[in-house]
Write a structure and sequence with these properties.
By secondary structure, this protein is α/β, with parallel strands linked by helices. It contains 13 helices and 13 strands. It has helices at 3-11, 14-22, 59-68, 81-84, 104-109, 181-191, 206-222, 237-245, 247-250, 271-274, 292-305, 323-327, 330-340, and strands at residues 33-35, 89-93, 97-101, 112-114, 118-119, 132-139, 142-150, 157-162, 195-199, 227-233, 253-259, 279-284, 311-317. It has an eleven-stranded mixed sheet with strand order 1-6-7-9-8-10-11-12-13-3-2, sandwiched between helices. The protein has a two-stranded antiparallel sheet with strand order 4-5. β2 (89-93) and β3 (97-101) form a beta hairpin. α1 (3-11) runs antiparallel to α2 (14-22) and α7 (206-222) packs across α8 (237-245). It is globular and about 45 Å long. Residues 1-40 and 43-71 have low confidence and may be disordered.
């Protein structure tokens, strides 16, 4: 049974639960996408299942449970968690702010077969490429080239990665760079019935925001009810903040991840902030592009403006610009965001 079906059964009225038992089929409009030919780093739920038996008069118990129990939060099943877990936590403020031990010799040189170019084989599973497609989406904002991994229709959750300056859609699906962390998010999405998207876009300004918003709107329509999380690396953060400002796009967001990225004071006046969209920051303490002190100050300003806001910060001690892309724990972060929304 798919994650999508389990979520449906856990959260909908009883009559829909019974209908779901009869049929698992879903009807979706075909996506307007066409196949397309394929074209730095050191710095750069499951609850216990109720067995319904009307013949044994269990139905009243199921009805009572459906009324009394809240829906269970969506949770991504593990994938190589032991390999991708954070090293030692040096200090913390609960889960809201953590300082993580990072060591270049251990976390790059000993993890990679060829430092920064090819991670050791145990970190990746390339079978996921069987459900990876290089596509073009035609929208009013223009043609959007993107790589889609997983279910383009009926996905349980949708995650996008937006690259930084000098990157492309290929960066977000490279299995072997950044310590295999992109391969992990691909496998997490496929194993959990989700969809992972890595697009190209024209710029880091309004046009780029409109293109990414159109991509989100298209795939969200193909997967009604799927939560959407956008992860932005480096300068890609400008697009994250642009989506937060866009009232229409903000309604579709269930989380923003800023990975070695920039801050945006205007976020505090944005539709996404008003809707309490969860935000995750990951930053290297020695980032020469976006100083960690600036990002930490912005993180603190969010909590000062709205105490209890769903925001988290992970500081990789001695890490540099690309460290958060390599080291961020995708599953932990996404499970937190899915629970919040």
């Amino acid at each position: 049974m798919s994650v999508l079906t389990k979520g449906l059964l856990a959260s909908q009225p009883l009559v829909m639960v019974l209908n779901a038992f009869k049929s698992k089929s879903h009807s979706f409009a075909p996506p307007s996408v066409l196949p397309d030919s394929p074209a730095g780093q050191r710095g750069a739920t499951c609850s216990a299942w109720l067995q319904v038996s009307i013949g044994h008069f269990v139905l009243p118990l199921v009805l009572a449970a459906s009324v009394a129990s809240p829906a269970h939060a969506q949770t991504l099943a593990p994938y190589k968690d032991d390999l991708f877990a954070y090293p030692a936590i040096l200090s913390s403020e609960g889960d809201t702010y953590r300082v993580v031990d990072y060591q270049e010799m251990r976390d790059i040189n000993e993890r990679d077969q060829v430092p920064e170019r090819r991670v050791q084989g145990k970190y990746v599973s390339t079978g996921v490429r069987k459900v990876q497609q290089d596509l073009v989406l035609r929208t009013d904002a223009g043609e959007i080239r993107h790589v889609a991994v997983g279910k383009t229709e009926g996905a349980s959750v949708i995650v996008l990665y937006l690259h930084g300056q000098g990157g492309s859609r290929k960066q977000g699906v490279d299995d072997f760079t950044f310590g295999g962390n992109f391969n992990r998010i691909k496998n997490l999405m496929v194993a959990n019935g989700g969809l992972y998207l890595s697009p190209d876009f024209s710029d880091f300004a309004d046009k780029g925001v409109s293109e990414v918003a159109a991509l989100i709107e298209h795939y969200a329509a193909q997967s009604p009810g799927a939560k959407v999380v956008v992860a932005c690396g480096s300068m890609g953060g400008a697009l994250c903040w642009g989506l937060a400002r866009d009232a229409r796009a903000a309604k579709q967001l269930s989380g923003l991840m800023l990975l070695g990225s920039l801050w945006e004071d205007g976020f505090l006046k944005s539709p996404a902030f008003a809707a309490k969209v969860p935000v995750f920051f990951a930053q290297g303490s020695k980032d020469p592009v976006f100083p960690v002190e600036k990002q930490e100050a912005f993180f603190r300003s969010i909590l000062a403006e709205k105490p209890g806001y769903p925001v988290r910060f992970v500081r990789f001690e001695t890490g540099t610009h690309g460290t958060p892309i390599r080291m961020t724990d995708w599953r932990e972060t996404l499970n937190w965001m899915l629970a919040e929304r």
